[in-house]
Amino acid sequence: MKNPSTLVAEATVSYIKNAFNHDLDAQSLTLQSTRKDFDGDITLVVFPLTRITRKSPTETANMIGEALKASLPEVDGFNVIQGFLNILFTDYFWWEQIQYLQTLKDFGIIPQRNRQHPILVEFSSPNTNKPLHLGHIRNNLLGASVSRILSANGHKVIKVNLVNDRGIHICKSMLAWQKWGNGETPETSGMKGDHLVGKYYVEFDKHFKAEVAAITEHGIKLEEAEKRAPIMLEVREMLLKWEAGDREIRQLWSKMNGWVYKGFESTYQKMGIEFDKI
Questions:
Q1: Phi and psi of 124, rounded to 5°?
Q2: Are 234 and 211 in contact (CB under 8 A)?
Q3: pLDDT averaged over consecutive 10-residue blocks of the chain (278 residues)?
Q4: 121 DSSP β-pair partners
Q5: What span, in angstroms and rounded, lies between the C-alpha atoms of 186 and 198?
Q6: Same fold across 4-94 and 110-278
């Protein structure tokens, strides 16, 4: 890999030797990244060199810039701001650098250090009553990126996915499937498991809204109607049975959650997302 600062330093030393017969120590040169408000990649501070060239800082910078452009095919151009020589490298030069770095398996990776505590990164955390959506994709990519950055910096990282797979929202999909599913499964429907369960969550909501609308037609306030809706009373009863450990309800819960988890895993695999604990 070619170091741009080294290229500039060596070419400058050679030019000073040939043009002024002066032995210059490359370590004495001041090279820095070009400030963002100027055009360039590397900046050479030429003020100390004027005692050798016996020229003004601007003249010295222009002479060195021309010499660098003539001797280094990697240099695309230069500009001078008083005593600062801003050097631009070609796009091809940077492309070569990137190609080389891609061959280094552990480039930028710090070996894991012995630290007292690991870092836990919790992300994704969906509910098992519907499929992953765009918000989860954002969450997944952020969580995975943070985890990889921390790992690359020598930390032990534990990636955790706290899935919310219980509660009344989960029971809504379960009840709707019991009522209108007719035994439908991911295999018989050709749907991913999380999409299938999400379909019945929507089905529950459709019937719930219809029942609420029918109740409010009799002068009942909306909030009270939502409490009285028969399907809402049923789903609350189902939740109580789940909390009491009812065997049939627990089996249905396990089966439908299994469909969702399998669907989630398919999505995670496509995204390259993995967890240490779910």
A1: 80, -80
A2: no
A3: 92 96 95 95 96 96 96 97 95 94 86 81 95 92 96 92 95 98 96 97 97 95 95 97 97 97 96 94
A4: 159
A5: 12
A6: no
Look at the alpha carbons of 217, 218, 223, 229 in this order and tell me if their dihedral is positive or negative.
Answer: negative
- Report yes or no: 243 and 166 within 8 Å, Cβ to Cβ: no
CA 9, 96, 88: angle at the middle one, nearest 5?
45
Q: What is the largest CA-CA distance in the chain?
A: 103
pTM for the whole structure:
0.68
Q: Are the C-beta atoms of 152 and 113 separated by less than 8 Å?
A: no
The CATH class, in words, for 4-94 is alpha beta
132-135: long-range contacts at Cβ-Cβ below 8 A with a sequence spacing of 24 or more? Answer: 132/194, 132/264, 132/267
Question: From residue 3, how far is each of 33, 41, 93 by CA, in Å?
Answer: 12, 12, 10
> Mind listing the pLDDT tens digit for each residue in 3-27?
999 999 999 999 999 999 999 999 9
Instruction: Report pLDDT digits (tens) over 134-184.
Output: 999 999 999 999 999 999 988 999 999 999 999 999 999 999 999 999 999
Give the span between the Cα atoms of 107 and 116, in whole angstroms. Answer: 25
Please tell me whether residue 130 adopts helix, strand or coil conformation. Answer: coil
What are the residue boundaries of the structural domains of the chain, listed by start?
4-94, 110-278
Judge contact between 55 and 63, C-beta under 8 A: yes
- The CATH T-level fold of domain 110-278 is Rossmann fold (3.40.50)
